[in-house]
Amino acid sequence: LCPTMVHLRSGRSLLDLNGRRTFATTRRRNRCRDTSTTVRKSMLSAVSREEGHRVVVADIGGTNARVQYWEVGDTDELLHTHTFATKDFPSLESCLGVFLKDPMGGKRPDAACFAVAGPVEDGVCMMTNAGWKVDERAIAAGLDIPLVGVLNDFEAVGYGVQGLTEDSLVALNKVQKVPKAPCVCLGPGTGLGEALMFWEESAQSYKVHPTEGGHVGFAPRGWKQRALQASVENQHGFCEMEHILSGSGLKRIYDFLRTDPETHRQGIETPDLEPAQISEAGLNDTNQLCRESVDLFLSILGAEAGNMGLKVLARGGVYIAGGVTPKLMPRMKMGAVLEEFLNYPNKKFHPLLKKIPLYAVIDEGVGLLGTKVYAKRFLLGIRQ
After folding, report:
1. Most CB contacts within 10 A, which of 180, 262, 344, 369?
2. Which segments of 77-194 does DSSP mark as H helices, in order?
3. Minimal CA–CA distance to 172: which of 347, 306, 300, 324?
4. pLDDT in tens, 279-307
5. Where are the beta strands (DSSP E) in 3-52?
């Protein structure tokens, strides 16, 4: 806070007794806020011009850790990248020790940021699949890195979306974005990630808010989706969005269609297939049931994207990312996602949904990009 704001807040009860003085208080606060924004813009420019800032970023899953070393300035230069098998290292610190030792001659970065597949609490994530405890304080102390951050992998996607170029996006609902309006991103992969993005005036950028929206209950539309919901509930006792919108969810849809009495087709071959085989056959149109599975998957994805867009009035854009999205892009372009995105059951919301931009993200490195964006925020003193 600037001194003027502190002084005014300390005497607020007295100032509120006089209408004109209260107005002056507001005006002075606004001047302080404007000054803070100007200073932040100046800081952003200064960091972008200064040479020599080096950051390490990584996207860490249960199997692999993709690590990159960047120098950031007017333009960002990738200095080194490597993918490690997590099973080969007892900890992230030992993995990073190998990564930093040779290529950079042991020089330590100015900041580091790590996206992890799991919940993060107070800078710590227990990665059950990898057997790693990722702790930002331990990494900072052990590797002598001044600024270290750990964030959820889909939170990183939210930051990455902000740095994408047009050739990394496919516009499914091509309408004008409203500057600084809320945005959302979602993405099916191993699970279903969802995040919200709201403009932060002091930072002059979006702040990403991770959610556990992938675990909310599935809201079916029509008899077939209700039957799918019942099928999943019979298996698991409940049906959440991630049961449907994920790689395993695509197989779940396919298995439902090939075994449910109401949807079973006589004379159609229905072999047991894995998600990659289902998507390939659906896209190549070599199996009718696979094509129907892909289309049903995309319809549900479009509906969920529309639901998220309505929740925050996402006039800044709805972004569909995730590992599954690029693989289904040919079918997405045919309109299944957009149709359900706009087809909200309550017709009075159609005009609003038509004004919400909808994009598909085809850059599979968006999560790593987001970790770099987040690391650069550290250099400006901006944290979650």
Report:
1. 369
2. 92-101, 136-143, 153-161
3. 306
4. 999 999 899 999 999 999 999 999 999 99
5. none
